[in-house]
């Protein structure tokens, strides 16, 4: 692994032919926690989608976990995403499977075969987010915060080098948002790199970290007190 998790040079981001963000230059090192903030429609989600190759990078140069975003072909994308954990706002858990079986589904889909090793890994990641005791529950039996903890655990299954969290507290009340942030910060303190898009400025005040802002087609670093 290189000393840079993410590198973007003179990148323009497009969605449906429209330029969303211009001239992005960014380097993210292993172990960083980086916020991406901005109003709805400012380009946060387009930025995140470009990082996990849901939107192609067509202008500028970019690498992420040693993958070249410019030259990425469809067959590479599943391998890229195994090295990136993705946490979404709406959890995206399979509703007809227990917590444990949601995890099992991901491991089988990414090539795991040993039943014992799979269960050990599931127990490990659920324990990290405080959900091991609810492994047999169905998603509808969990609160929003519990579902997001499960989603974070799922993102950790393949020991990713980077976690992309796109508005992970967007559907949660303030207290639950703080609890989810505590989980993410603990994971970061244990060495994982996290890039988190959010519009919740209260979280930035309580958990300050390097912050980039999307505004007027640009993305730039902001000093915490001016956010």
Outline the structure in words.
The protein has seven helices and ten strands. The model has no long low-confidence stretch (mean pLDDT 92). The protein has two domains: 58 residues, no CATH class; 130 residues, 3-Layer(aba) Sandwich (Rossmann fold). It is of the alpha/beta class and 227 residues long. The radius of gyration is 17 Å and the shape is globular.
The CATH class of the largest domain turns out to be Alpha Beta
The helix content, as a percent range, equals 25-40%
The CATH homologous superfamily of the largest domain: P-loop containing nucleotide triphosphate hydrolases
CATH architecture of the largest domain: 3-Layer(aba) Sandwich
How do the helices and strands line up, and which of them pair or pack?
Layout: E1 6-15, E2 18-28, E3 33-37, H1 44-51, E4 59-64, E5 67-68, H2 77-82, E6 84-87, H3 99-109, H4 115-128, H5 144-156, E7 162-166, H6 174-189, E8 193-197, H7 201-206, E9 210-215, E10 218-222
Parallel strand pairs: 3-8, 3-9, 6-7, 7-8
Antiparallel strand pairs: 1-2, 1-4, 4-5, 9-10
């Amino acid at each position: 692994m290189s000393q840079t998790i993410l590198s973007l040079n003179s990148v323009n981001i497009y969605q449906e032919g429209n330029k969303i963000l211009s001239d992005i230059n960014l380097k993210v090192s292993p172990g960083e926690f980086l916020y991406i903030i901005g109003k709805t429609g400012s380009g946060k989600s387009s930025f995140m989608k470009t990082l996990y190759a849901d939107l192609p990078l067509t202008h500028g140069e970019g690498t992420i976990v040693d993958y070249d975003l410019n030259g990425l072909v469809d067959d590479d994308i599943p391998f890229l995403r195994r090295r990136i954990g993705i946490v979404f706002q709406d959890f995206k858990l399979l509703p007809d499977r227990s917590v444990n079986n949601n995890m099992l589904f991901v491991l089988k889909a990414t090539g795991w075969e040993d039943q014992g090793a799979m269960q050990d890994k599931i127990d490990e990641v659920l324990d990290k987010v405080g959900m091991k005791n609810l492994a047999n529950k169905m998603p509808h039996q969990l609160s929003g915060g519990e579902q997001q903890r499960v989603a974070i655990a799922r993102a950790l299954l393949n020991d990713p080098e980077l976690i992309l969290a796109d508005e992970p507290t967007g559907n949660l009340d303030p207290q639950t948002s703080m609890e989810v942030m505590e989980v993410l910060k603990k994971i970061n303190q244990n060495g994982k790199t996290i890039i988190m898009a959010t519009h919740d400025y209260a979280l930035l005040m309580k958990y300050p970290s390097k912050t980039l802002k999307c505004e007027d087609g640009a993305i730039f670093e902001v000093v915490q007190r001016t956010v």
